[in-house]
């Protein structure tokens, strides 16, 4: 049976996409006749180190006679994992229904000989030419109505039922072959889900999706307030699919639809793999866009995967340690578990305005930062550049001649350190007393209507994050609806969407003894992106005993002072009021536009066994540091490490009976850190030390016996 046969299976209206693909896959399995490879013995798993360094390797781009040399060089630089296959569809299925996975099997075996484990990527980010030219409906259409073409990647239509059948087929065939392979440790589905489609069939799916979500047009019209500008819909097929500028309710639901469509796209392959693969093999996808991208809700996408992973690039310039650390913490929050950095920059990239190279030692600092924040593996993209193709200039580990580039020496150093530190880091993870809430709904809601183009949600998040990290605290960045028990302090800058159910959950946390601090723009919208009928923070006005009287976009600074210190607000200021006798004012605005003068900028109230506070302004760094110090003291957050010099970061991973501290010097001058108690120097195999001397970009990995 070929794909052609499969596509003849007519779609019945009541079949969900998943049913169809499941059926298609079952049909494939019936006829394919599985031959298990000689290595198909799941009991004989080669012991991989617990901390892995690796690279993206593309054996399909090179003569087979070259592979052994590549793998020898990798082994010599202590690389223990390669990701293979994620763009190799035209090699795996050169013609429709004609498969060749033998070369891939030979690559997996050869890697094993060199003690290198394999993560297999399904090639669905780059469909072969035969597929899209024969079935053009598998190509996506952009918001301007232009259909994508072959010759690049990501040209497929994520909502196309036909494309998903092909995806399930190739993923299923790979899983048949490698699902029990002892040297295959995991799977990556596709590559960096990116572009949506605006074709007519996808629009019809969107309209059906809205019907399921709202049930009736009356409900939709009400939640979207469509009486405004005569937007009222009388038929589902009147509803448009717009990329920007539409009704905020519609725009938010489009993001939800995009999320669910990617989730279904992924689910089809997940099921195809899961059906045949050993449970020990993880299934992930490498989410890109420097982790902050929000074209879909990453919590939903990660929910179905066994592990989160992301692609960590700097681009032009140098590592921004706080930003990058926050992105690791965000990724760790997708599944609230350790994760992998599936791609990292080998010195430089090819897509920045100026493709500068990281300083010698900076990539090592970056690798250890990833581990400190919860990564169990770091893979460089890529081992060697293809001789032609769009990424000839990208950084790599070996050159076009196949011999080590200067960067190879730094890779070898990191690899050998990962080997040394693996035992100490095994079964450890960051453990936080502080959580920072993050929500895609809130991000979308604000970005559809920023009101001040300078309100950059990532910058606001970092304003709160930086002083927490400067205190040496581990910070979990988690979804707004994640469980909060166990956190001493929960902060929520820009939590724009607060539904009544989320408000209940937050209030329960406070009543049971938690300290919740809401930041500017919180609680303005409900889950349909409609204005909450209460002022901000919406359903939390009552417990807060205060509210936002009015918000102001600022184009200059406003003085702010109070018991937490004095400074300024910029970009955004909310005029607060207290409405309960026991709500106290911590900060007030000074002379400004008349409306803000003398009005509260930050208020707080004890509620149940806990406390709820609201800070309505974007403060300068000094005053923000004082505000965060007040928050951590009031919430009785305990120090995790002693004082740190500027530009030195500490990360802590906690195990059953020990903790590992990773100290990273992000400065280009040496730093000396005195430890409060002796610790084992893991990278130097054991001596007990009381001082850590860190050269420029230097790293120390220290083990303490107690937590
Ligand atoms: C990533 C992508 C890789 C490679 C890399 C270059 O976004 O997943 O395939 O293109 O960028 O930096």
Please render the helix and strand layout as text:
Layout lengths: L2 H5 L9 H16 L19 E5 L7 H13 L4 E4 L4 H4 L9 H12 L3 E5 L7 H6 L26 H18 L5 E5 L11 H15 L2 H7 L24 H27 L7 E3 L1 E2 L10 H6 L5 E4 L8 H15 L3 E6 L17 H11 L2 E6 L26 H19 L8 E5 L1 H9 L8 H14 L4 E5 L9 E4 L7 H12 L3 E4 L22 H4 L1 E8 L4 E5 L2 E14 L5 E6 L10 E8 L2 E6 L1 E3 L1 H14 L13 E7 L4 E7 L5 E11 L6 E7 L4 E6 L3
Parallel strand pairs: 1-2, 1-9, 2-3, 3-4, 4-5, 6-7, 7-8, 8-9, 10-11, 10-12, 12-13, 13-19
Antiparallel strand pairs: 14-16, 15-16, 15-17, 16-20, 17-18, 18-19, 21-22, 22-25, 23-24, 23-25
The structure holds beta-D-galactopyranose.
The site of beta-D-galactopyranose (GAL) has 10 residues, from loops.
Key features of this structure:
single chain; 707 residues; alpha/beta; TIM Barrel; Rossmann fold; Immunoglobulin-like; 3 domains; 9-stranded parallel beta sheet; 25 strands; 32% helix; binds beta-D-galactopyranose
